[in-house]
Amino acid sequence: MQKRSILESRFAHLCFVMTGSLLFLVALLQLPLTVIFQNTRPGLPFYITGVQKEGLRIDLAPQADRTVRRLLRDGDVLTRIGSYEYDTASWDGDRLIDVLAETRIGDTLRVDVLRDGGTESLDIVLDQPRARMHGAYVSITRYLTNAVGPLIILLIALIVLMRRPRRRDAALYFLLSASMSLWLLTSASTSMMMPWWQALRPVTLYIPGVAFALFIALLLHFTLVFPEDRWLRHAPRVRVVLLYTPYTLLLAAVYVLPPLTGLDRENIVLTVANYVLYTASPVLAVIALLQSQRRSASRMTRKLVRTILAGIAVFGAGIMMTLLLELAGTDLGVDARWLLYIRLGSMGLAVLALPSAFGYAILRYGFLDVRVIFRRTTVYALLAAAVSLAFLSCVVLLRESVSALTGTEVLLVSAVLAGVAAVVLSASMDRIQKFVDTHIFREEHRTSTELQALSRRLVNTLRRDELLSIVTRDLPALLGLRSASVFAVDEQGVSQHLAGAASAAEHLPALMQHAAFKARLAADEVVHVASQFEDPARHDVSVAFAIAARNGEYVLAVLGEKENGRPFGSAELHELRAVADSAALGWKNAALSEELQQQERMKKEIEIAHTIQAAMLPRETPRLEGYDIAAVSTPAREVGGDFFDFIETADGRLAVVIGDVADKGVSAAMVMASSISTIRFAAEQDVSPRAILSRANERLFIDTRRHMFVAVFLGVLDTDTGSMIFTNAGLPKPLLQRDGESFLIDWTDNGQHLPLGARSAIEFHEQELPLEAGDILLLYTDGVIEGCNASDEEFGVKRLRDALRAVSDLSADEIRKHICDEIHAFTGRADLSDDLTLVVLKVTRP
Questions:
Q1: Residue 545: beta bridge partners?
Q2: What mean pLDDT is predicted for residues 569-595?
Q3: Which of 84, 248, 552, 759 has its CA 20 to 30 A from that of 130?
Q4: Rounded to whole angstroms, how far apart are CA atoms 580 and 167?
């Protein structure tokens, strides 16, 4: 595993999050306070344009009234403001902040100005708030610099930091954003009036310079790492030393050497070094990005780098313009007001260019692999920004156009108008959402829409092969993946390839050894294998999720890397979670559909088997003079193992057969069909019941499984003698009613009573039963007497005797029907627990 740098440690990430959150809170608080200070505190009617040996050089503010303009003029030098003297030797910015913080609208401020070799004391009435005195352009710049700019920058930085934690490029981007935000939060004069910055005196005056130097260094450092690490990548510590040493030396020369050596902070050497370093760094950053753009093979990466490049170029232009204006001072021959506007414009470019470029790069191209979920979140952010902009615009416009309103009244009216704008915008939420989706996030919207359609296809598919095709063919085509595959894998990593590329199979055993990996699969999570289980050699296993799981076995979808080489972002993993859920539901639907189809096929097959089985049973009973015969066979399921038959033996006599297979369902029906055919064939060869069953047993013992026994009663009716020669192979004893009495027929001991298929060779018993006029012989399977009621009590032989005795004077068919009705009435249910077969033979001859 590759060793992480300190920027990628958990401790550093925690520190970054806490620092970013604190700065974001400060920026959030400074936004309303800046508006309040700009509209409730008085503004000085002049700007300080330089510090010279005699005092502070000033230019008049654009909104300075005639009274002030009679007293002061551009280029004047002030030696005192309030109770504090100002010159090169005694310059202290904190004193001016104290003056601004202590004054209120209507106060009179005394200043000393150099005139004709001496000083003149003047009283200046501070009757206008800062926003009106400095004008709309200055106010807007203060809002952007003091709060809005840092808010946007920190919001983007925190999103990157939280979405891509513990990554060096994300950490560097956060640090440059935090340092830029700190520079903006402390650089404006209004910032110094904030209570938290006043509490940090005297270090507050050093914060902007240090923060800006750190930001410029980090900007260059970041461009050398993003989008690829190239310069001194094998010696990162040497690179850090070379990058940050010039800025460290410059800061020491500006802030440490002057107090120790008496060196003038405005020394020309320090000034030139400062300007050269701060203008050269953005240029070097632009050159580094231009090289990255030329080297990149991905079209999307080139667009991303181009966006960042444009932002840094505009920022660099703004910084260069600002530094040049400071270097040139007021000796450009340009009107002071236009010079102010140029300075404010260059500062606005420096503040807005980078956050705009980075924000657009995130939203449009997934900068640093961060993709914001743009549905409602982005729309709410846009609405909040629009409402804030409406509020600030109202404040500026009212201050500039309505002189009758006080600062408090301006704030109240602006808040009401901003509230109205919020209501109007919220009513247009759906249209704004549609515009954002289709214009700002065109590609993301298209991909998201197609993923939703793919998810619906996964849910609605009723075939597993079609679902596997969607996952392994359509999903990688949509997301631009190198490969996708599906495996059936157990906890030991033994896999069976189901679809897609098979190359990922070699990595599954190692992955399945990770307890955390299996735990995430069991929790139905989408596992980002590439970031959580690192293996630099693995390119075809980047993301995995379970489509189905049962008893430690998984149907596992494995996605390879993207073709452009970029890792999966958090938003993409979130969308894949929906795809995984749809695939899991689709797999269940397909399994259920296949099961239903299988059941339907089995139902049809059973219906065919039932039809075949019914066709094998006699359609009607034989019509013999002097005999009335009825029979019925009712299976407990769709098909059963009971049967009866009437067969003509080789000598022309009638053989009555009733049988019971020792099983139920389709398997019993198959054995039953085989048994009927075998007994029929045997009856064509022999005439003795014993011989017929012996021959049939030999065949069935070979053809059936060992536990598939067939109990059979076979009796050959001799109409000439009026007797029946029979043998019984495992069925209950027949019931005979004669002269009003019912009794079971006992067996003789001249043979065995084992069912067919029990042994290979069986010598069955055989005996003769004389039949008299009026006799009723009842042949039945065990399902007749073993049917139970709700008390688990069997129907039994006694109830069978009673049922037979009650209708002995009726026909054979009526007797059969009565006995069946009695059994159903006794059990109390229409279905049977076992197959029921009954043959009634009634002797009607005189």
A1: 557
A2: 83
A3: 84
A4: 27
Q: At what angle do helices 10-40 and 130-143 cross, to 10 degrees?
A: 160
User: Which residues, in sequence order, are bridge partners of residue 658?
Assistant: 644, 713
β 56-60/642-648 pair status: unpaired
What local confidence, expressed as pLDDT, does residue 34 receive?
Answer: 84
**Taking 90 as the threshold, does the pLDDT of residue 61 lie above it?**
no
- 55 conformational bin, left if phi > 0, alpha if psi -120 to 50, beta if neither: left
Q: Percent of the chain scored above 90 by pLDDT?
A: 16
- Whole-angstrom distance, CA of residue 419 vs CA of residue 412: 11
Locate 290 and state its tokens.
């231009």
Nearest-10 Cα torsion for 688, 691, 696, 701: 160
Q: Measuring CA to CA, which residue among 425, 480, 429, 424 is closest to residue 451?
A: 480
**Residue 813 tokens, joined:** 């068919």
User: Who contacts 236 (Cβ-Cβ below 8 Å, separation ≥6)?
Assistant: 5
Which residue stretches of 710-792 are H helix?
Answer: 782-785
d(CA 620, CA 34): 106
Report the distance separating Cα 558 and Cα 497, nearest Å. 11
- Characterize the bridge pairing of strands 710-718 and 723-729: antiparallel
**In whole angstroms, what is the distance from residue 308 CA to residue 357 CA?**
6
Report the C-alpha gap between 655 and 467 in whole angstroms. 59
Q: What whole-number distance in Å separates Cα of residue 258 and Cα of residue 367?
A: 43
> pLDDT class for 239, splitting at 50, 70, 90?
confident
**pLDDT exceeds 90 at position 716:** yes
Do 318 and 350 meet the contact criterion of CB atoms below 8 Å apart? Answer: yes
**Cα 712 to Cα 728: distance, rounded to the nearest angstrom:** 6
Structural Rg of the chain based on CA atoms: 49
- Collapsing DSSP states into helix, strand and coil, what is residue 371? coil
- CB of 632 within 8 A of CB of 614? no
Count of H helices and E strands in the chain?
A: 28, 21
Q: How far apart are CA 502 and CA 487, in angstroms?
A: 9
3-state SS assignment for residue 788: strand
pLDDT by residue (tens digit) across 188-199?
Answer: 777 777 888 878
Give the residue from 533, 799, 257, 273 showing the smallest Cα distance to 265: 257
